[in-house]
Design goal:
The chain is of the alpha+beta class and 288 residues long. The protein has 7 helices and 9 strands.
Length: 288
């Protein structure tokens, strides 16, 4: 999906994003206009016909701000239909993620301040994560498959072999019409890991289920479950926090998980943990 006012596509839908889960859900979702479809995004996809030199992280986040500022100031946001209608989320998939563990105090302070301005959906700290790679895109058709999980473990083990510990600095926030992001800066470490994963899955015969190639180290922390009540006040606060320093995450633990769209802790199944910068991966935390 293209951001309004731009020919750059920064938002792309997940596979089967609008799949009805039952008759009632279908009736609810069918009335939502296509251009207001809720999409998951990783901010780096540019259609082939508009390819231009890759942006660094700062340029990318600034471009997101510039592309969406006008719409946000007018209250033109894309509502998440699952959150707004209180429906149970049945979209599941398999992803390689980084759990967030070290920025809780500053994050929860930021969320408290936002809640005083707008009652949007803010991720609990336990649900925050950085997506490295979606092996199986989240959808209502997802079915657990042990053979696929073993292939994903193999791919992750090979791609992460020899990867050293590294840091991601979370410096500032930015909003699109769909969600709020914590801006992560990783010196392209994740780009390198993703590139290696794509190579490995091709070698082992695992289907690449990516919709686009992700190019950032962001954390999604907020989604719109309703319209912004006071867009100018909201954007004034966003501008105040554009350079809000949340701190640094030392990345030494990566997880392969089965999870829902929002990475809710209560619904997440950890399949395998990988301890990078050490000689071997950790054992399975939960049985397949």
């Amino acid at each position: 999906m293209k951001a309004q006012g731009s020919n750059l596509q920064f938002f792309a839908p997940k596979n089967n994003m609008h799949t009805p889960h039952n008759g009632s859900d279908f009736l609810k979702l069918r009335t939502i206009k296509t251009h207001h479809a809720f999409t998951r995004f990783f901010l780096s996809h540019i259609p082939a016909e508009t390819k231009r030199p890759a942006m660094n992280s700062a340029e990318l986040y600034n471009h997101i701000y510039d592309t969406n500022e006008k719409a946000l100031r007018s209250g033109d946001v894309l509502i998440d239909p699952v959150l707004s209608r209180g429906m149970k989320d049945r979209r599941f998939g398999l992803s390689l993620i980084i759990p967030v563990r070290r920025i809780q105090i500053k994050y929860e302070k930021l969320v408290r301040q936002f809640k005083e301005i707008e009652p949007l959906y803010y991720y609990p700290f336990s649900d925050l994560h950085i997506t490295i790679f979606d092996f199986v895109q989240g959808s209502g058709q997802y079915r657990r498959n042990q053979e696929t999980e073993m292939k994903c473990i193999e791919a992750a083990e090979k791609a992460l072999k020899g990867v050293p510990e590294f840091d991601i600095e979370f410096d500032g926030i930015v909003f699109s019409r769909e969600a709020g992001l914590l801006q992560g800066f990783d010196h392209n470490r994740l780009l390198q890991i993703r590139k290696c994963i794509r190579k490995v899955i091709k070698e082992i015969g695992l289907k690449n289920d990516e919709r686009y190639e992700s190019g950032s180290a962001h954390i999604t922390f907020c989604r719109f479950k309703e319209k912004i009540r006071n867009p100018e006040t909201f954007m004034h606060f966003v501008d105040e926090k554009r350079k809000y320093k949340l701190g640094k995450e030392k990345i030494d633990l990566i997880q392969l998980v089965e999870h829902d769209w929002y990475n809710q802790e209560s619904k997440k199944r950890v399949i395998r943990c990988f301890s990078i910068g050490r000689s071997s991966s950790l054992s399975i935390l939960k049985k397949l």
